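Lab notes, practical 5.
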Amino acid sequence: MRKIAIDPGYGYLKGIDEDKNTVCFPSLVAPAHDRSMEGVFNGEHSGEVFENLEIEYEDVEGMFNLFVGDLARESRNASYSFDRNKINHLNTRVLIATTAAILSSEGDKLWAGVGLPFEYFKAQGEEMKRLLLDFDARVQFKDSGYERHITFDRVSIFAQGATSVYDALLYPNGAFRYPELMRRGNLIALVNWGTRTADVVVFKSGDGFHLQSELSFTLDDVGAMEIRRMVQRAFQEKVGSPISVIDAEDIINNDGFVFYDGMEYDFSEVIEKGKRNITQTVLDNLQNRWGNRVGFIRKIFFAGGTTEDVRHLLDRHSLSKQIQIVSDPQLSEARGMLHRMEIQERQERNDNQKTISFSG
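Output from the prediction step:
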């Protein structure tokens, strides 16, 4: 059974398969429109496959022609889903199906691992599992004609942050990166900082990792989306016109500069202020929620896409001696889920071998 781990983030969709192939694209979906004239001006459709995700998607609710990811930015109707519960949103189904289609081949039996924010896990975990076990969709990629029928034979739902720690602490082959952290009694924290939420999870090491529930929590509205909202408000105040979240993203991606109505505007200071604000909010919450336990935490790993945006600010904080940013933090959650699935598979294989041995 082919294992794929999917992290359906508010800002970006991240995925990885058992062969360590990865995907990462914006969690954007929009109705498709005619692109035939692009070939006249740009030559044939070019770029990475994830930049040209035009699909025909079909499930029980109907058939839809859609742009997904970066290509969806071309549409005025592009949308993110920022609902706390986005499980039954069309965007969620489309993004999961598209990722599964990219990371698998026709005929594969699929074992899907999917993550939910730490504090949403109990309330939404069963609902997400039911969605995926009942999943039945068709995805066709317009440019290539490649088509996949997507169903899931096995589903595992994980709490975000609780799986990123496996990526932080283990090499791909399962060996420990930091054996010294495995000493009994060590406290290890993982902050999975995404576009909307920051999941904070603390473990005590010993015979495995033991979750410290009283020190673990989710912070809402503290991610990179808050920087986009600040740019939206600043643009409205300075220029007098509203802009979309996607327009704000474009300004951020262009280092804060934008040309509008005959003038160039610089929002770089607004962007930097936004980064400082969310960093201060998250780090203040860590210190306040952990209280006098903060000094006992041996290592605070940071993962997630927003971590990369504020790396320079984390290095300056009083907690910097304890902070370590994982490699390629945006994909950490997906890699951690795959680790968990591989560990579970090994355990099941060993249990089966023991059963065979005893029965003899």
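Observations recorded by the TA: Confidence is low (pLDDT under 50) at residues 39-47, 355-360. The CA atoms of residues 110 and 153 lie 6 Å apart.
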